[in-house]
Amino acid sequence: MNVLFKADVIKPGRYIGGEVGQVVKPAVGLRARMVLAFPDVYEVAASHLGYQLLYRIVNAEPDLAAERVCAVWSDAEELLRKRGLALTTLESGAELSGFDVIGFSVPYELLATGVLQILDLARIALRADQRGESDPIVIGGGPALINPEPFALFFDAVAIGDGERLLPQMLRLVGERRAAGDSRRAILEQLSQIEGLYVPALYHAPEDRALPLTPISPAPERVRRTVIPDLDQYPPPGRPLVPTIQAIHDRLSVELCRGCTRGCRFCQAGYIYRPLRERSSEPLLEQIERELRQSGFEELGLLSLSTGDYSDLATLLPGVLGLTRDDRIGTSLPSLRVESLDARIVESIRQVHKTGFTIAVEAGGGGLRRAINKPISDEQVLETVRRVFEAGWKHIKLYFMVGLPGETQDDLRQIVELARNVMRNVRSISRRGGVNLHLATFVPKPFTPFQWEPMISLEQARQRIDLIHNALRRSGIKLRWQDPRTSRLESAFARGGREVGEAILEAYTAGARFDAWTEHFDNQRWIEAFASMGLDLEHCAQNGFELDALLPWDHIDCRIDKRFLLEELRRSQVGELTADCRTGQCSSCGACDDQLENRLARAPKQGAAQSAPIHVAAVRPASDVPLARVRIRFEKLGDARLLSHLELASAVERSLRRARAPMAYSQGHHPKPRLSFGPPLPVGAQGREEYFEALLVKQPDLYQLGKELSEQLPQGIVLREARLIARRDRSLFESISGFSYSFILPADLALDESERALALERIAQFSSGESWIVVEVRDKATREIEIKPLVIRIELQGADRLLIDLAHRPGKRGAKPLSIIRSIFQWSDERMAGGRMTRERTFFTDEDRA
């Protein structure tokens, strides 16, 4: 992507790539190349485990390659269009149109316009039926596409099920058939023969939107979800990607298991990922040890739909703590259920770095909880609160839904009562303890027992949220809720047919973007888009289905028997529970067959938690008393100049972890490595003589430390020197006395003779004056800064190069170098924006030479 584009956006780190773990392959000799596209911004993509795993799986194949692209924020889209630039990949900066396949991972329905934005900016036709022979095959996958019909307009094919085995097989087919000269239609017909691949063009949809869809030979009548029987046969290959900027969930994520046997009737993931398959604990520990060492993350997330149900958790948790304790790596278990939080887990998590703890109660009354097959009691919730606060947590989040089938006013009042009781329990244990309550409006989803049920109206959702909100005023509980209008749109997408795709296209054309982000969501735009297609958004969202009706997703075989879902719906209406099938009682859902069954790890023996072998990483000294102070000189070049100071600090910290540097840590609840940096560079400026210092708990071999650290730093961060500094010396920040900067104008904006003469006159005017005030706006506050004491030297060399030396005065107000240059020379924003700033040298006081 054009470097000037990346330098001119609000958050350039989103677009630079170059991460640790990135794979760049030459195009020559490959059977197929694909772009993995994520229809949200980079920070969200970097947090999505499935997206990261597919990237690693494809690139582990020697004849295949995957590069990445994400949706771009509104400022970046505007610049790309204004400058006539196409969207390109993070790895090689190649345009998307040159790849064989573009594969979208779509975890959430409201990312639909992100799909269209990427295709549009890549100059690829939005509608599948308008793409030419040379265009990439566009494929979608992810839970939001389990009902593919609202997206059928845009995708050449949709992947249904696990992608580990499906994606390499599909890529090789496309590459081979393209090389053989097959037509686009012929390739799609062959793709339709792969289990789990749905090709919308091969299913005829009548103009009157009637069902069912009619398959066109050779497409199968129903597309069967593909499932990997044994996850242990597909361990994540390669090394994890480490984002260059802070991700939404900035941690190493590891999947414990896939699927769930609890059978919560509202939970789509609990059905569409069946059967339950677990990874064995020993390979998991080996993976965690390896990937922590390769990534340098300071937090580990153990992910599944219900982490507490992982059958070998008693072995896994002590092993994980053995790997993370000495490196101060936090461990999060984000999907613990109340029922699974027993004494063994609490004892283990006493040692875990605490963030927040979430209890997903879902429904207010016990009867409604039975209806949704989640029969936890208020007493269990309150006992869980007591346990987690005694284990060291300080905040707890309660999650509820409004609008579940059968919900009454009494259920809403019981949400309020339980929340107040939780707050009382919290305050009885910790006066500083906090409770957050999050409300969402229930959305009926395909392949759940509630798929036939209507959604409550927008007005009903608002009334129920208002009732809870008003009742909890002045309770000390922080209440947040998801906008019911976005839930309404989600429902319309989740259960719609192909007509919804036309409305999505209309809304995108009218400017809809980032609908999952509050600041971008425009409800009226969507109402108008649906209306333009003869649809009523409220009706599409609320509309239920007769039990014998054809459903828009009936041609997708999700391996869940429809009769089972109907029986579960009946059970919900009379409050009957369905047992967890891991207890030995099969619920006959249809997910298991001769090849597939619930894959549970072997039950651990009694006392396994104490006797199981623990894989321990290199142990740190027990004391964190620093014994050595190391000063590192480095360069910040190329795209790394677009990283902010905080992003640079995070990258350095993770690099030190990967280099196994024996870092000293701060004290307190959240210990951090004891690092210090020099004054930050402006974003966009290069630095040829930058510094940071690390306190270590033992004297290092400087050569070996420098060698290992050099190998771990991200692209553009180049280590130049490592040296020991006396502990008694002043801090790095205080010992720096000044900097030398260069500012180079682009060739087409170089100064002509008259402009150069004027610039020299401005330098003379500045030098002769007694005072010079620069006005800056920071954090919406205007500041006047006297810069005469700051500017040591200013010199114009030739027609395009400016040198300026500035004093650094710790604790005193300074001005940005660009603000100083702009003020002295009165250059236009256009001329300044095209210039290249470099911090050439760092000056130290006589007592603190670098």
What is the topology?
Blueprint: H1 3-7, E1 32-38, H2 42-45, H3 49-59, E2 64-70, H4 74-83, E3 101-105, H5 112-121, E4 137-141, E5 157-159, H6 163-179, H7 184-191, E6 197-198, E7 203-204, E8 214-215, E9 223-224, E10 252-255, E11 257-258, H8 269-272, E12 277-278, H9 281-295, E13 299-303, H10 313-324, E14 330-332, H11 343-349, E15 357-362, H12 366-371, H13 378-390, E16 395-402, H14 409-429, E17 434-441, H15 458-471, E18 478-481, H16 484-494, H17 498-509, H18 523-532, H19 537-542, E19 556-557, H20 562-574, H21 608-611, E20 628-636, H22 645-658, E21 675-677, E22 686-696, H23 702-712, E23 717-724, H24 732-735, E24 736-744, H25 753-768, E25 773-778, E26 781-786, E27 791-797, E28 801-807, H26 817-825, H27 829-833, E29 836-844
Parallel strand pairs: 1-2, 1-3, 3-4, 4-5, 9-19, 10-13, 13-14, 15-16, 16-17, 17-18, 22-29
Antiparallel strand pairs: 5-6, 7-8, 11-12, 20-22, 20-23, 21-22, 24-28, 24-29, 25-26, 27-28
Helix pairs in contact: 3-6, 5-17, 6-7, 9-10, 9-22, 10-11, 13-14, 14-15, 17-18
Give a description of the structure.
This protein starts with a helix and ends in a 6-residue tail after the last strand. 32% of the residues lie in helices and 18% in strands. It is built from 27 helices and 29 strands. With 850 residues, it is α/β, with parallel strands linked by helices. The strands form 8 sheets. Strands 20, 21, 22, 23, 24, 27, 28 and 29 form an 8-stranded mixed β-sheet that branches. It has a 6-stranded mixed β-sheet with strand order 2-1-3-4-5-6, sandwiched between helices. The radius of gyration is 29 Å and the shape is globular. A hairpin with a 2-residue loop joins strand 25 (773-778) and strand 26. The relative contact order is 0.09.
